[in-house]
Request: fold
Amino acid sequence: MANSEKRVAVIGAGVMGEALISGLIAYGISPSSITISEKREERAAELKALYKVSNAPLGENVANCDLILLVVKPQDAAEVLSEISQSIKHGTLVISFVAGKKISFIADCIGTSANPVIRVMPNTPTLVGKGMAAISCCGLVTQDQREFALGFLGGVGKVIEVDEELQDAVTATSGSGPAYFFAFVEAMVAGAKNLGLSHEDATLLTVQTIVGAAALLEGSQDDASVLRQKVTSPHGTTAAALASFEASDLNSAVAKAMAAAHKRSQELA
Reply:
């Protein structure tokens, strides 16, 4: 089936659901083939106006689709999947964006072993087309289905495929990672203000420095370690700052934070 002919049900019309709708359309799915299930009338009307998609009750939507994008909160997943189980057709692909929930959880809640499931860990930069996602496929997923998931997610950022047992590590790295970045920006802005800069100047200096550094890293053949060494003159200002990071055991602090995120991801399963 051509991409434009796929009938897609998007369950969960929050900000991530909207980003995925945009990605689907960019990948070649016709807006007329995308149906959301959204109880909030105002939100449904907003998405219908922006993307020319349809809105339908959950059971009706699921019964008429070829694949489902499940974009709900972990605490809502069991209830939504139980309702889906009453209408889903055998063979319909489920692509789950539910944080922490395993493929086996999705299958058990649906109550059938006849539906292929792809588990995805996205992150919030997907909203601006700069996302990082990792997918894991169950044994029922076909090559075409796998390529579809990799293709449309690649349109809103970058995507890799990992064994499902590594999804908690992905969550701790790229899933939660944007918040680590935002926290570091907050700390830099606060530090700059302590040195006398205004909030506006501190923010601009910090954000543009990090944006530029990220672009330099992405476009360079050198890794972060080499780039760090290149901008660190012996006994200079950068060396003094990095020595302070080392004295505070930055590596250990980051590792502990990521381990905490990893543990919590396992607990959500």
